[in-house]
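writing this on my phone so excuse typos. first protein, seq and then structure
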Amino acid sequence: MTAAVVGHTAGQEVFGGVDSHTDTLHIAVISDNGGHLADAEFPTTAAGYTAGLAFLNAHGHVLAIGVEGTASYGTGFTREARACGHRVVEVNRPDRAERRRIGKSDPIDAYAAARAALSGRASSAPKDDTVAGIRALHNAARSAVKARTAALNQIGQLLITAPEAVRTRYGRLKTAERTDALARQRPAGDAVHTAVLTALKSLARRVKELTAEHQALTKALDAEVTAHNPGLRAAYGVGPDTAAQLLVTAGGNPERLRTEAAFAALCGAAPVPASSGRTNRHRLSRGGDRAANAALYRIALCRMSGDRRTRDYVTRQTEAGRTKKEIIRLLKRAIAREIFRCLTTNVAVPEIADLRPARQAKNITLTAVANHFGVWPATISTLERGLRRDDDLANAYREWLTTA
């Protein structure tokens, strides 16, 4: 541990700043008027966290600690500091202009984090650990999809340059049929044919294994998301992947998001003022969490495809002269408002477990129900199993079953 200490008064109010790295933490202390008091380096271990907090407490009453990387390298220190009752705020890295002006080093970044906590520029509470399991499952599931896509692309590229007999036999098959056929085949022929078929068989088996892995992870992720926030999972168009991404973006303590406008800005779905002089306009936000923005986009597309209210809204906006891109932007902003309500309040999810037993007790088929309501049988099936939320249809379905 190294330290540089400046004279200070015992019992004064101070602010801390932490620059976190893989193996070390650099901690700085400033007074409540911004004066530099001390800085020191500690290891990223349990003992290092304890020593770092003792170092901060030795300089006075700690009002707040600004930490860079509360969800990465600074996670352990953040957890320990909050357990000890300290107020921790999340600090973004200094902007490039400031970094060019004053340079970069661990002490400089630690003091900058402390000043951010003092000035109020950094005021957001860090995310807690309640969604750590959802984050882990979500990352693993996406990794499986990425690896599966890479293997499928490799199969396609190999077939382009494969011997004519191999390309003719497997090149025209659809993706699932091709994968099954390649996984079953036994490499034979000359050296080139055997090598190519062996590679294709290995890739096909990899695709099948990754598909099964992704299905298992998605099932586990769905259970975790539903248990954590059933209202969010039940919202129309919100599947396991999009719900997990939105929960990871908001964190397990969504009270850190003060307003729904702040959540929309976090997701990059809030229009940014771009007015000047006589010009009064807004532009598209290109900041925020782009993965959360993509989740809102997928929800919007799903609702445009199957939700009656959304389709009527799209029709009205199209007649008003708006383009499809503009309509999707409006929808994402409205969806962000709904998602914020699901994240910050307990949204009641209507019970649908009684629908299927009631239908089966009267020997009514899915097809008969679907024909009565003018929908596909799959729509009724997913509604009964809780995979689709449509409160109006569920209520009408229940009333119809009562009188049928």
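second protein below, same order as before
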Amino acid sequence: MLVLLAFIIIFHITSAALLFVATIDNAWWVGEEFFADIWRVCINNTNCTEINDTFTGYSMLQAVQATMILSTILCCVAFLIFVLQLFRLKQGERFVLTSIIQLMSCLCVMIAAAIYTDRREDLHKENPNFYRLISDGTYGYSFILAWVAFAFTFVSGLMYLILRKRK
């Protein structure tokens, strides 16, 4: 049982780390001379432009930013609640609250990545100064990590739903 508990804790911490990296790092859309994320666009590694309200499509990026931050916070809260429930729940009870919060984190990450996937091309077309420079890019590792974090948080949420506290 101790090995299972250690695996669940490591799996949850890995999920949180993936969410932190996907939210913070600047590699959602990359190319040879640029990289862009939900916070800024950098050309030639020196010319970085913060994405603000003058950027066309800013509301879409704000939605992605908000849901990624919310998913990271929910994942951390779920871990804290898991630790509290580990010592407070009676034997045989399930970690339902932890599961619900972790599945909400999963939903937030899915929403953020789906919005970015759907609206990325429109965002670049609406900003012609950047579009000609960054149109020939690919999805970066932060974007891929967001989808991997979605899978990890989903599996983690299901594990908590099934898991019972045993001796």
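DSSP finds five helices and five strands in the chain. thats all i got for now
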